[in-house]
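Box 3.1 A note on notation
Throughout this textbook, protein chains are presented in two layers. The first layer is the amino acid sequence; the second is a token string describing backbone geometry. Keep the layers aligned when reading.
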Amino acid sequence: MVQVTGMKICPGMANLTPAQLRKVMSLESELGVILVAHGRMPTVATLTKEELASVQALEKKTGTVLVAYRD
């Protein structure tokens, strides 16, 4: 997991065994998708209009998609 100044970039990533990982990768191949395994799904944050505008502005600047979670 990548960390920046102690903060998790993607909270709740699952720790898969090699056998589980092979199964996930097989299904990805079968379906033609990318699957992300979460050990627990974090709560998606409810943002104010101002907070959402800030996130959207940063998305535009960075060319990324950001998802806000509450831990």
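The helical segments are 18-31, 49-62. The mean pLDDT is 86.
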